[in-house]
Amino acid sequence: MPRYKITVEYDGSPFFGWQAQENLPTVQGFLQQAIFKATGHEPEVFGAGRTDTGVHAVAQVAHFDSDKNWDPYRMASAINAHLAAAKVPISVLEASIAPDDFHARFSAKYRSYKYVVINRRSPLVLWKSRAYLYKYSLDVAAMQRATGVFIGRRDFSSFRASECQSASAIKTIDDFTITQTGEQIVFQVKAKSFLHHQVRNMVGSLVEVGRGKIDGFTLQKILDAKDRRKAGPTAPACGLYLFQVDY
Questions:
Q1: Pairing mode, if any, of strands 90-98 and 110-119?
Q2: Which residues are CB-neighbours of 195 under 8 A, at least 6 positions away?
């Protein structure tokens, strides 16, 4: 039975996250329905990242087993045809046959997320539901300097959601950059894995730095406090993208 590895793009706006939930629209749910309609059986689709409600993906990686030994291009095309018929913003970008021991989630070495802020006062049109509109001036250089607080192996208790089910709050951030192009500010962070809402919570606190409400020293104290109540607000889901998974 072949194992298919697929790379998937989706607009997370209409979905209640990646993970299938009864009577709710989810990315995993629609993918499994499309595969069922294409092949006649509904396998479980495993994703590299279980993105939350409203979170997007540029290159989510997933896998599933099928009793159909099809050319990967044919499989991707069949799935896309049924996704299009369902009128959902999900697209399989590519497919391949993976080794039997490949697992989209557990084989991943790194996951990279981008968070997009549009820093202006005017309402969003093209970026609506796809970026965080922040109307106040931000000091990008101050935010760039403050990212160093998060680099390395840290206890991120101050930046995890209360409903996070991870056994440990200790995670390792391998890279964290912030770039600005005109009114667009992009936060990019790379790690093997993340806590629930960790990226959005870190961005929320960095925006506080950019606004001048706190400085890098205070951000370090917030991290050391290991208390979610000390950190900044959770940035909206609409600005977050899973954009790369490395194996």
A1: unpaired
A2: 156, 159, 160, 161, 164, 166, 169, 171
Distance CA 60, CA 49 (A): 7
The Cα-based distances of 154 to 139, 192, 193 in angstroms read: 25, 13, 13
Cα–chain-centroid distance for residue 141?
25
Per-residue pLDDT of the chain (247 residues; tens, 9 = 90+): 899 999 999 999 999 999 999 999 999 999 999 999 999 998 899 999 999 999 999 999 999 999 999 999 999 999 999 999 999 999 999 999 999 999 999 999 999 999 999 999 999 999 999 999 999 999 999 999 999 999 999 999 999 998 888 999 999 999 999 999 999 999 999 999 999 999 999 999 999 999 999 999 999 999 999 999 999 999 999 999 999 999 9
Element (H, E) at 17: none
Output phi, psi for 170, to 5 deg.
-85, 120
d(CA 187, CA 124): 19
Q: Is 52 a catalytic residue?
A: yes
Residue partners of 129: CB distance under 8 A and separation at least 6: 11, 13, 54, 238
Q: Return the ∠ at Cα 92 (arms to 104 and 49), rounded to 5°.
A: 30
User: Of these residues, 52, 67, 71, 174, which one is catalytic?
Assistant: 52
